[in-house]
What does this fold into?
Amino acid sequence: MKKRIAIIASGSGSNAQKIMEHFKYHDQAEVALILSNNSDAYVLQRADNFEVPTHVFDRHTFYQTDEITDLLTRLQIDLVVLAGFLWLVPKNLLDKYPNKIINIHPALLPAYGGKGMYGDRVHQAVLDAGEQESGITIHFVNEHFDEGEIIYQARFRIEPGDSLEVIRFKGQQLEHQHYPKVIEGLLKKM
Ligand code: GAR
It folds into this structure.
């Protein structure tokens, strides 16, 4: 049986798109479900385009019930992939999927992580600090923001004069290039 991936995303879902593309014709793994806490998220449209089932949940369901954990178990999900999802993962879900929930962050953790550090806020902080490089981090998820064990990092140079848009673009390119492959590598070991 193919390994089954669930992706949780809140927004555009460009990473989800790359992951669905990567596994569309894969013989060992598939994207089995896309979940979102935002019923307007463009990622849900992307999922429809790939005929991947979707599920929308709210804060109460996520934190006060076992509904999401039960759904993932029922669908025999092997790996949970966060891709632009900003809520802490509750203990019941972490316990059910030990070292099987991963996240991508648009900077070189442990720098520029933590609560409130997401998307352009991260790139702006990197720019304000005058850094000469930034990158991406893929890590296991634990009960704290951006603190789980690091699985993979990739870096890019920040050239003098690079704008926030340029930095965002360089980071996105790396995310799209590496996240599907890192997921594939993890699934092979499972
Ligand atoms: C990605 O750049 C990801 O690294 C970031 O959200 C973006 C989602 O983009 N995540 C965080 O900042 C987490 N702290 P996408 O919806 O186009 O995949």
About this structure: The mean pLDDT is 98.
